[in-house]
Predict the 3D structure of the following.
Amino acid sequence: MKRLFITLLSAAFLTSQLGGCGFPTHRNSSAVKEEAAVEYTAENVAETMKAALKGFGNSTEYDARISQSVIDEAVKIVQHDCPQYFWLNGYATTTTNKSTSVSFTVLNDYTEDELRQMYTALDEAADDIISQIPAGSDDYRTALFVHDQLIQNTRYASEKTGLSYNGLWGCAYGCLVDGSAVCQGYAEAYQLIMQKLGSECGVCSGISDRGSHAWNYLKLDGDYYWVDVTWDDPESESDEGSLRHNYFMINDEMLLRTRNIGSENYFVPKCTSLYSNYFVKKNAYFSGYSPEETGRVLAENADAGVAEMMFADKDAYKTAMTKLFDEQEIWELPGSPELGYRLTYYNDDNMYVITINY
C-alpha cells in the first residue's frame, strides 16, 4: 500500500495600478542585478524545505510567486530523499503575486515536542540495527543483513492495507519503532538505514498483482537492483514459513513479472545486472534442473535446514518441480543430506524459486 499525500491549494491575488513610468534614470546595471528576483527551481525549493524540516519546522516562505508545478516537484524530491520525516501527510500552498508559502500537514497532528521524541526513537532504532551488522561485512552482506533484520522484527500490518488514510504503519517509524508496517513502511525503513550507511537507496511504487505497492531500489558496486523487503516476508502472504530472498537484488525483467512502475515516481533506475542477486551469490541460480546441483545446495544449507534455489526461466523451474516432487526425486539426490519426513517446500511461480525446509 502506497502512502497517500494530499495537496491543498489556495491563492490570494493582489492587484495594483501601474503607471507609465520606466526605470529611474539613476538606477545602474549593478543595482538592477542585485534586485532581480531569485530564480526558484524545484531543487533549491526542496533544499529549503529539507532545512526547515530538519529543525521540525513545517512551513517555508518565498519572496516570489512560484508555480505550483515547481512546488509539487520540490515536495516530490523531499518525499523521495527523506524517509526520516515520517510525519509528512500533505501540504498546502498559498500564493500572492509576490510571495509563496508552503505548509506541511503533520500526521496525527503530533506536536513539535512529540516529533522530536519520535524522531530520536526512529534514529536510535535504525542505529541499533546498524550496530548489529557483523564486523567485516561488505556492502552486499550489509544490505542482506538489513533486509533480513527488518523481516524478522516487523509484523506485516495486513489489517491496515486498503485504508483510505495514513498512519505510522505506512512509514519508517511504524516499521522500526512500532514493529508493524505495510509495504511503504518496510520500504522507507530499508531506505533510511541504507542511506545512513552511505548507500544510494530509494522507494518506488506502482500497481502489483496484489494491489497498490511500494518497494526499493539500491545501488551496489555501480549497478542498480530492486529489493522488495515486504514480499520476502512470509507474513505478507499469511505464511508461517521462513523469510525469503526471492526479491533481493533482482533486475527489471524479474520485477515487471508482478507489477508495473507508476509514472509519478521521482526516479526510476535501470536495473539490468544480476551480479549481486541473492541466488547468484549463493551459487543457487540455475539455467536448468540438475539433480547433482540440487543435492549440493541441500548439503550446503543442511545446518540451517532451509535451501533456496532460483531458475532462470519457467521451463527449467517447471522441470525441477516435476522431477523433485511429482516424481519424488527429492529423496534420491546425489550428495543430499538426510531429509527426514518433515520436509516441506514453498514454490514461487512468478520468480521461479523453490524453497525447501528440511
Notes: The chain is about 35% helix and 20% strand. Residues 4 and 165 are 7 Å apart (CA to CA). The longest helix spans residues 112-131.
